[in-house]
Amino acid sequence: GGGGVHAEYNFLRLEKRTNWGDIFQTLVELVKVNKQHVNDLFRKYDYDHSNALETNEVFQFLKALVPRASAADTIYFRVMLGMEDDEVIDFNALLDSIATAGQVGDAVRRKENGAVEGLLSKLG
What we know:
- The protein is of the alpha+beta class.
- The protein has one domain (about 20-124): Recoverin, domain 1, CATH 1.10.238.
- The chain has 6 helices and 4 strands; from the N terminus they run ββααβααβαα.
- It has helices spanning about 25-35, 35-45, 55-65, 70-80, 90-110, 115-124; strands at about 5-10, 10-15, 50-55, 90.
- The strands form 2 sheets. Strands 1-2 form a two-stranded antiparallel ribbon.
- A hairpin with a 2-residue loop joins β1 (about 5-10) and β2.
- α2 (about 35-45) crosses α3 (about 55-65).
- The radius of gyration is 14 Å and the shape is globular.
- Keywords: Calcium.
- It comes from Tetraselmis chuii.
- GO terms for molecular function: calcium ion binding.
- This is EF-hand domain-containing protein.
């Protein structure tokens, strides 16, 4: 089987993930389970209160949200977001990118090349 994400006492807990190859699948599940907690973490790591995360803040946010994320997951996350060192991303853009990257991962697993190309163009 797969894995599961569970909300307990308003906290997210990653139960089990057997496919660590797609961090976005996990992130999509986390957003579905408790978007408010994801938003709270976003605000926590927005140190300058700009309503956007800088690259280093994004990685801290990711590690807080998915503590078992590997270095490879972190790199994949950055590549799929298309963030350069000096860029920022707001909460809605982050959610949109997570959703789109999750769809790309699903399409790749199903080997739907046309869908992958169309979705990748949305990521920029």
